[in-house]
Amino acid sequence: MSNFRDLTDGDDSYRATEEDDWVIGEDGNDTIRGLGGNDTLWGSDGNDLLYGGAGNDRLLGWFGYDRLYGEAGNDYLDGVVMVGGTGDDTYEFDVGVDTVDERPDGGTDTLIVGESYSLYGLNIENLVLRYYGDFEATGNLFANYLTGNSGRNRLDGAAGADSLAGGQGDDTYVVDESGDVVLEDANAGVDTVIAGVSYSLDGRHIEILTLSGSANLDAAGNDLANTLTGNSGNNLLDGGLGSDTMAGGLGDDIYLVDHAGDVVKEARGEGADTILSSVSFGLRGVHAEVLTLTGTQDIDVTGNSLANRLNGNAGHNRLDGGTGYDTLAGGAGNDTYVVNTAGDQVIEVADGGADLVESAISLILAAEVESLTLTGSGNLHGTGNGGNNLITGGAGANRLDGMAGNDTLIGGTGNDTYYIDSLSDRVVELHYEGTDLIYTSVSYSLFGRAVESLIMTGDGDLVVTGNSLANTITGNGGDNQLNGGGGNDTLIGGLGDDTYYVDSLSDRVEELHYEGTDLIYTSVSYSLFGRAIESVIMTGDGDLVVIGNSLANRITGNSGDNHLNGGGGNDTLIGGTGDDSYTVDAAGDIVTEAASEGTDLVLAYTTYTLGAEIENLTMIGSIYWGQSGTGNALNNVLAGNSNHNILDGRAGDDTLVGGDGHDTYYVDSVGDKVVEAYLQGTDEIEASVSYSLHGTHIELLRLAGSEDLTATGNSMGNVLVGNSGNNVLNGKGGSDYLYGGLGSDVFLFESINAHEYIGDFTAAHADIINLNGWTGGVANTGAVTQSGADVLITAGGWNDIRVVDAVVDDVLAHIVW
User: Model confidence over 203-216: pLDDT tens digits?
Assistant: First the structure.
């Protein structure tokens, strides 16, 4: 091993050589610089700082908050804070714990993670999934190389020409650029490609191909039994060899069928679709669509009671099939079709003009027809297609659905229902025209539309905003944002991780259990009781009160003076800049407060330790066992309750206020103050500094540590206990019990009150009994007598000092008169 160096357990600073070095930091907070060579720097325990220098280095932080700087060369880094350099670096990364800083043009770098992760926002090119879990890997703007593990992975290179390499599991690849490359071995699971571009499976061991987005894309299979699924655009699906299943979706799709086992799935209302087949094939169960007018004149045609087929010409035609089951096929002109029966069918070629259907029945627009007007007075349904439709309702309670495309839906006086699936879809609804409802699969705003209710569909992550009415907004299975706007609104979430905006005390949020991890933004006080919401963020600057529920809530305050109560569960409470108060009722509750964010208070039903930047702690409740309160580095005020409390302010000049129980206080600063009222239990102070009980109603004072400290009592009957140092114990008034401990202790009596006790006088320790405050320097050896195993120092009347387990000669030799 070249230049091996094992440092000490202290805080070391070491500079390696220009050769290949191996340095181990051991315990302590070490700084190690690698300089030249291919070095291995191992920080071991402690918070270490490692610099790789030149060369291809291995930087291993190990335990502690370690910061690693790779600098030049192709480095391997495993720490908490990792900063690469100009080389091709590799990072062992723990999500939620570690941070990586990789600059642009810093080489081709690799991140190795053991869970789902995204490279978005990082200057990292490659991502490797370790272990065997079902993880997701997402790239960034670079040409990424994403490598899966043996689990079921989802690999999404995002922007850039990416390479996606799966493993043995059933993997999913997201392809969004023509330059993306998918690498999959044969017999390595049943794998899926989700493509936002035209894509072919030829030469790839992939079974399933799904097109995403709304663009008009092509999908081609291979010699396996493929499943091809289109998007909302106009797709060309070609399964290739094998028995393939093809589902086009909402667009006007074309299927190439070349095998008797091929299956086409096309739902009703999903565009005007065409099947090109080279084998026998039936349309049964497949909703695919295929009098003729000639010339260019604008001609009107009316059918009869038969099943008519009316074909238009290049002019502007009006086609009315009558009462039969008719097929109406226009031409290049702006045609009008009159539909009277459910069996009527309209066929319009592409670029065949701007066409209109006038329907007395519920109708789904055929492909390439732009407009639909419902002429009947019943509760009719009008459904569009893949184009940009104009659909107009009648006097009934209509259901208007433009389907794909940028559609305009105009309701009437009835209670209408609208279906929205495009950000450019437009709803026209006037005031006093019924109580109306929108179903939407895209984000949408009710502003300017007199619509009362909205229900999200699908599983997309939608954002919906209400208007000034009392809206009812219902989410879907995605991660939704629900904002009722003005009015007293009802917001109902779904299965996803939903976000709600509350701005009125009368706003109502409904969320069931097991329906995602949900968040409320509120500008008013709010309670999560009865609502399966996990998180609340307060907005504005009002002094708000937010109460959680039985879940593990995360509640975040605003700039006002807030009260945060997580309710049941292990909650995280995050304050703001105001003077905030927190109610803690579980050991797992966490309170977070930043520096300079007001004077804050925790009200705790349980044993609790103050986090950083929180000043005060008050214990509440009435549990019967001991309840501890611990401070932090600030000047804390800790207040107990009626239980037997343990109060420890830690660093800082703290104020510890007991209650009715038998309390224990820990004092570690001369500035610490203990407040205990009269008749509030039998209380104890454990002090690591000299301390006096004067002015307190404390019975027991115990010195901690090994320093030479002084313990002073009060007018009560105290018990004073020393530590291993040389202590001075002064009971003051009352009948006191003094225990010096291991050191050379002084038992100081300014007066003798009733019966005083020295419990561990030891001549061998050079203990001193100082009676000078009582005798004024006048020796009175006759007052010192043997009383059984003890020595009794009599002061007259009922006043004496009993020295336990001692002999007269030893006591006389150690008395200061």
Answer: 889 999 999 999 99
